[in-house]
Design goal:
With 145 residues, the protein is α/β, with parallel strands linked by helices. 23% of the residues lie in helices and 39% in strands. The longest helix is centred in the C-terminal third of the chain and has 17 residues, at 99-115.
Length: 145
């Protein structure tokens, strides 16, 4: 699985003019299940993210993890993280998991974060969504498991 993780002071996702999910301080997580991914990858990605030390401690150093801060996560499906841009100008997305499996793993990933004590808000899988966020730092990390 792949994820683009952004430390945020706030973030929200909406579709059709309706807010689907919103958080205050925490992480905006764009996530994509890849061909061949399974439950093990969803669990491993969740574990990596909750332990990722990208929040400031009292000395101002990035030394605290999401679970240390009490922050939340906004999880949004993002199949375009599977983009292959090696040929031509139009990205290919064949490396992404099929939609049914992608949705299952997206849900599993969000549940894995919740099981680790994180408050999670989500978007709607496969929907055309508007994402708004204030990237704090800015801090943006690419992860793949």
């Amino acid at each position: 699985m792949r994820a683009l993780v952004q430390r945020v002071s706030r973030a929200s996702v909406s579709a059709d003019g309706r807010v689907l999910g919103e958080i205050g301080p925490g992480l905006m997580i764009l996530v994509c299940a890849m061909q061949g991914d399974g439950d093990a990858q969803a669990e491993a990605l969740a574990e990596k993210i909750v332990k990722l030390r990208i929040f400031r401690d009292d000395a101002g150093k990035m030394n605290r993890a999401l679970r240390d801060t009490g922050g939340a996560a906004l999880v949004v499906s993002q199949f375009t993280l599977a983009a292959d841009t090696t040929r031509g100008n139009r990205p290919g997305f064949s490396a992404a998991a099929p939609p049914d499996e992608g949705e299952r793993l997206y849900t599993r990933f969000a549940e894995a974060l919740r099981a680790r004590g994180i408050t999670v808000a989500t978007g709607a899988f496969g929907a055309d969504m508007d994402v708004a966020l204030v990237n704090q730092g800015p801090v943006t990390i690419w992860l793949e498991v």
